[in-house]
Amino acid sequence: MINITKVNYKISDTFKITNLDLNLDKGTYHLLGPNGAGKTSFLNLLSGLCSPDTGHIFIGNVAVNPLNLGQLSKVRAYLMQKQVAHFALTVKGMLAITLSLSESAVETLCENHDVIKGLDLLQLLNRSITALSGGESQRAHLARVLLHCDLKLEPNFCLLLLDEPYTGLDVSHKLWLNQYLTQLGKYITVLISHHELNLALNLAQPCIIINNGQIHRVLTDSRDIEKSTLVDVFKLPLSVLSETNEGILQIIGI
Amino acid sequence: MKSVKKKLYITILTLLILFIISLFYGGISSHTISPINISDINKVILYDLRLPKILTAILVGTCLALSGHLFQLLLSNPLAEPGLLGVSSLASLFVMLGAAIFNYINIRYDVFFLVLSSSLGALLAVTIIFQLAKRLGQYSSASLILSGISLTTLISAISSWLIYYSDNTQLRTFNLWLLGSFEHVTFFQLMFIGLITVTVTILCMCKSKELNMLYMGDQNATLYGLKVNKLRKYMLILASTLAACAVALGGVIAFIGLLAPHATRIIFGHDNRLVLPMLVINGASFMVFIEWISRTSMSLQLPLGLVTATLGGPFFLFILFKHFKNQGL
């Protein structure tokens, strides 16, 4: 579904993304890597926010390039790491703008929607986005992106990109998000960049590990992440790695 | 939805009432005319003296409110306003220079050239602000406002030099452009600039859906399929034209571009499909009100800029506290 061929992208003189070659099917993928490994740049490239110097990317049959932004917005959604809020829009107003619906249509949609229920947004709909706490704001923007990729609204949708979606979420919403994204992975490609290594080690989901702007490893089961990877790529001392009775690797202390 | 309709009626009614009060009621120091049995002298006062000024106020208010809102949205900065950014002052400086040049080469300074020089000034100001803000720090909120302030300072220095070297008659003309006044507006100017204003306003309203996306920030708007840079350039030209029209009619009138958009967004929310038409009405209401005050509160007519600055200063502080308290910039 997602096809990345020989992508190179120079970000600065000292950092570049090299030799991205990847095909992604439906599923929930975890994008892992230390700070500055190139995760966000990778997502920016995939979303079409940045254009690669060489190579090409296809989402379904839509080529990712600046001329296709309109078409791309119908097949992919991207939750960026940081959100800007200069104006005091209400959450409802924000959803209305991004979904191209009227505010009353948003109200009807939200009344009985899994995403709104799961993220407990019903009571926040009339609050202004500048007055929300960090976690609340993250939930509102998650809802914006998850509603955007609701297959009932956009039937051709195939790629959801999330950059550190867990930031600021409390445990129950984190749990709900995980379950929702796992379900969603049955229909579309979901790519989550995050730092919750223990979570990834527990879930039997595919993962992509990148380091220094290159793909280090692509695993079909995140439980197969090796000790050496954790030590070499993530710079963890061996002493914090332990195995549970089921033989699953865990990191102690995070 | 019901409450939106109610607010809409109240807004339109406010403008109508203000229009009638401004036309007939003389306030403390001016002549009150009864709408029944209008004498011939009073007809002259109404149609030749008051009505043109009120119509000018409606146009100027519309231009300032719309351009203020657009600048705020396009620069992602709730403090942006043609007056504060230096757009109005550069436009008025260009109008003055144009007047000087046309006077020198002895050609009549037509309304067409008036609007042209004013628009050139406004566009140049926007270009300078963007270039400065880019170098100062990636178009950030603070860098845009700081470039605006530095531009305003530079222009006020130039204006001051001009005033220093001018004689009495020139001084009066300069004051007119620098402090704002509707005294000199002719009916033909009103028609010409009115036509431009209506056209530009309609062009703006055609883009309201795209403008809505800008609330989400540039990158998110791009993700939703908007060609942000193209839209921004186009809309900045429209917003500058509106600011230039306001200057061409009434000189520099600060703070309406701040007051009207904030009030309108507080009342009607942020959807541009509703906000843009309401801005036209609210901007007009504010300006009609201020024009009425300036005409009736003192025995001599007050400069409009004086009234708006007196009311606008405290309001600016209010906005500062509302948006930037404990946030830095």
UniProtKB/TrEMBL annotation, chain A:
Residues 2-237 form the ABC transporter domain. InterPro entries: AAA+_ATPase, ABC_transporter-like_ATP-bd, P-loop_NTPase. Keywords: ATP-binding, Nucleotide-binding, Translocase, Transport. One of its GO terms (molecular function) is ATP hydrolysis activity. Coiled coil: none annotated. PANTHER family: HEMIN IMPORT ATP-BINDING PROTEIN HMUV (PTHR42794). Part of the ABC transporter complex HmuTUV involved in hemin import. Responsible for energy coupling to the transport system. This is Vitamin B12 transport system ATP-binding protein. It comes from Pseudoalteromonas denitrificans DSM 6059.
From TrEMBL, chain B:
Its main location: membrane. It is found in: Cell membrane. Keywords: Cell membrane, Membrane, Transmembrane, Transmembrane helix, Transport. The keyword Chaperone does not apply. It is a multi-pass membrane protein. InterPro entries: ABC_BtuC-like (IPR037294), ABC_transptr_permease_BtuC (IPR000522). GO terms for molecular function: transmembrane transporter activity. The keyword Endoplasmic reticulum does not apply. Pfam families: FecCD. The chain crosses the membrane at residues 12-34, 54-75, 84-105, 111-132, 144-165, 185-206, 236-262, 274-293, 300-321. One of its GO terms (cellular component) is plasma membrane. Belongs to the binding-protein-dependent transport system permease family. FecCD subfamily. This is Vitamin B12 transport system permease protein. It comes from Pseudoalteromonas denitrificans DSM 6059.
